[in-house]
């Protein structure tokens, strides 16, 4: 699971950097919130979680680890795609989608935090 998360995070890294590069070239920074969250919740957070799951298999094997894996990977794309279109079309009709994605992602992260506090032990 750790290695899979690191591979997924590398894809987020590429998407986030492409978005940053695009904003720099066209001098339009409206999509900065999408860029920042793809890089921080997609690239850095998932890489760190992946490294922890790889270093401490007990974290990856626990139910809370699996819950984190799925909620983070389902919620974040929903939130990012929703936010992308809210900003692009200047239309708030998709805000409930953003809120749903954000809620799912947050629940996944709470599961991750619970897992680390409960199951991370020095070997
Ligand atoms: C080649 C890579 C990157 C490019 C070209 C790039 C480009 C940009 C641009 C154009 C902005 C908007 C600046 C503005 O609104 O004035 C921005 C904001 C931001 N970027 Fe990147 N970025 C890159 C990589 C990253 C990475 C790797 C991260 C985090 C891991 C990151 C995190 C952020 C954050 C948090 C902001 C918001 C800053 C703020 O609003 O104060 N960026 N980036």
TrEMBL record:
PROSITE patterns attached to this UniProt entry: CYTOCHROME_B561
KW Membrane (keyword) present: yes
Keyword Transferase tagged: no
Compartment annotation: Membrane
Keyword terms: Electron transport, Membrane, Transmembrane, Transmembrane helix, Transport
The Cytochrome b561 domain, residue ranges: 1-123
Listed transmembrane segments: 5-24, 36-56, 68-89, 95-117
InterPro entries: Cyt_b561/ferric_Rdtase_TM, Cyt_c_oxase-like_su1_sf
GO cellular component: membrane
Protein name, per record: Cytochrome-c oxidase
Protein's organism: Halobacillus litoralis
């Amino acid at each position: 699971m750790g290695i899979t998360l690191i591979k997924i995070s590398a894809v987020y890294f590429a998407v986030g950097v492409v978005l940053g590069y695009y904003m720099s070239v066209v001098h339009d920074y409206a999509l900065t919130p999408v860029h920042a969250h793809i890089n921080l919740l997609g690239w850095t957070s998932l890489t760190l979680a992946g490294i922890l799951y790889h270093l401490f298999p007990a974290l990856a094997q626990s139910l809370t680890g699996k819950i984190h894996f799925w909620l983070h990977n389902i919620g974040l794309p929903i939130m990012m795609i929703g936010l992308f279109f809210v900003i692009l079309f200047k239309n708030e009709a998709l805000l409930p989608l953003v809120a749903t994605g954000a809620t799912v992602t947050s629940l996944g992260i709470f599961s991750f935090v619970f897992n680390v506090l409960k199951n991370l032990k020095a070997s």
